[in-house]
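Problem 3 from the worked examples.
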Amino acid sequence: MNNKLPSCFKQEIIDDEALKTRALLSEFHVNTVCQQARCPNLNHCFKNLRLAFMILGNTCTRNCRFCAVRKSENVSLGINDDEPHRISRVVKMLGLKYVVVTSVTRDDLSDGGAAQFAKTIEAVHNIDKNIKIEVLIPDFKGDISSLKTVIAAYPEVIAHNIETVRRLYKAVRPQADYRVSLDVLRRIKEIYPSLTVKSSIILGLGETEEEVVCAMQDLKNTGLDILTLGQYLSPGAQHYPVKEFINNQQFKRYKDIGLALGLKVISSGPLIRSSYQAEEVYKELIYA
């Protein structure tokens, strides 16, 4: 196994444009998963105005062991009603034409936060109806009404990440369910077949190639359009450890296997994240 951190994970030095983006987000008290999850692409993406907004606060009600986002179980965290408006103002000021919105998981809310997703989509479309929106949603505990609330707001892409293979769920995502996540993706396609649906797997958690291929087949069976595959980086000693750094050849092999299975678009590589180059990946599907 290869456990040496590859050189590609060295972050770019933060420049003036990235600093301006950070300052604007701070001014409007807007969260991004880029910052909260300590993404290795952060400086590069902020410099190029590629960011993933994070709604429903910055505290998650689940304890996934791979994730750096703050956790707080058994606490009612509330909702900031002004959050969608603040995000839309940042979108306008940055002149964004493709907007990615994700959230923490909010099991304390009856709809899992679906209404806040819909309000955020609406607020951005009120600026410019031609802005493309990609939302990365939690599983909403499989609640169909919550899925319909988000779908009815008409984003261009709905993503929901399975994150890892079935066997590792208990160790890595103890409060999630592999079958529920697959069902969420399948139901989205059933409700709105023309909607682009996306998911992601992080590698290096101890999965086998056979398990990854099985997960890709499961995703294909849901009607999935886009899959991203990236390298897991442990945020800290208290998080799940990296078991292996996957080499570029293996990332290419997984992409080739996934395409052979019938998946339409696959973005695969060490630095790939669910929302990384989201607009470019979406265009690859649309113009294929």
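Problem 4, a separate protein:
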Amino acid sequence: MKDSQIRMHLDYMCFVQETEDYQMTTEAEQYAIDVLDDELSGDEAISRILEEHNVSRSKQIDDTEDNLYPDTDVFINYFGILDQKKLDELETLIVSVRMAELFKNEFDGVFDFEYLKIVHYQLFSDIYPFAGKIRYIPITRRTMFCLPQYIDTMAEEIFTKLREEKFLRNQEFEEFIDNLAYFMAEVHALHPFLDGNTRAMRIFFQQLSHKALWHINPSDTDDSRLLEADIAALEGDYQPLISLLHSAVEPYKA
């Protein structure tokens, strides 16, 4: 892969991680670069990470109703880590590797709900038992996301519309931006997974954009502005997100 392409993917990965408060380290960047540049496979990189951080996967996972360790806010994970800071550091490394893998191997299939599940599974299956699985409990942040009993129905509506729009291909800039903002907002509101929704969504829509010959370049995007744009879109006002995408989207050359 060309150096310019590696830098492009790495910049986007850093943006995706850091807007979700996962701090990209030099170590995380280097592992991602090694995967993008075919120096390491994703599995080789993960093995090295676990060895260097002296952790191993547990053979047995005990589920709880909310997927949290008792009396904690820490998700049950394959490493048995209860220290949230330590888990976040390991998660940043592993997810960076899996993001790099997804960008290195361009997707040629259908950008449907099943593929969004695959992206989520790819990013988090090394860490969490709920990777790629639809959540069964409600989630509220600054707004209430789709109730779990309606996720499948709403997903069918969203991704049917996306298919009818031919996955945003062969669209002029203005039409592409308007549609991209709409579908990003809809999938954000769907929030189908227990955690990691935004990271999975941003990788999914970057890959979709590339197939439509556009690239989301977040270099000048302010984190707080993005957060407010996402919230406004959840409430039905797409204009802040459209304005942000206007300055971030550019032609893509594979």
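Solution to problem 4. The chain has two domains: 1-105, 108-254. The domain at 108-254 is CATH 1.10.3290.10 (Fic-like fold).
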